[in-house]
Amino acid sequence: MTVTTQDHDDLPYSVFAKACPSRGTLEHVTGRWGGLTLGALYEGSLRFNELRRHVDGVSEKMLSQTLHALERDGLVHREAQPTNPPRVDYRLTPLGHQVTERLLALIHCVEGSMDQVLAAREAYDARPLP
């Protein structure tokens, strides 16, 4: 089944419209750290440092900003426990699960196609310069 932009004409929002608020959410979900953070949280809740270790390469600052954006969009729930030291857990909301299922399908498609991607890159890089 091929999905076109016309298939979604009945939706109240269009990511293709310049001022549409869905663009920001799409950027949060598909951005480098957003996609990896959502994917990491798919199996269950994680504490900040567990999440940081799971998402290899993300800085503390970027993970914090990413979690704030995803929480604001209603995709991630932050739960602070009143303990000493404070314990904060992050988990996907029902909407976050719905979005992440689709995102993981894309991730698996890309991972499964990497031999083709790498061959295409090699062929491209071997072309003579114009």
UniProtKB/TrEMBL annotation:
Gene Ontology molecular functions: DNA binding
Keyword DNA damage: no
Alphabetized InterPro entries for the sequence: HTH_HxlR, WH-like_DNA-bd_sf, WH_DNA-bd_sf
Signal sequence range: none
A matching Pfam family: HxlR
Keywords: DNA-binding, Transcription, Transcription regulation
Domain (HTH hxlR-type) ranges: 20-118
SUPFAM superfamilies in UniProt: Winged helix' DNA-binding domain
Protein name per the record: Transcriptional regulator
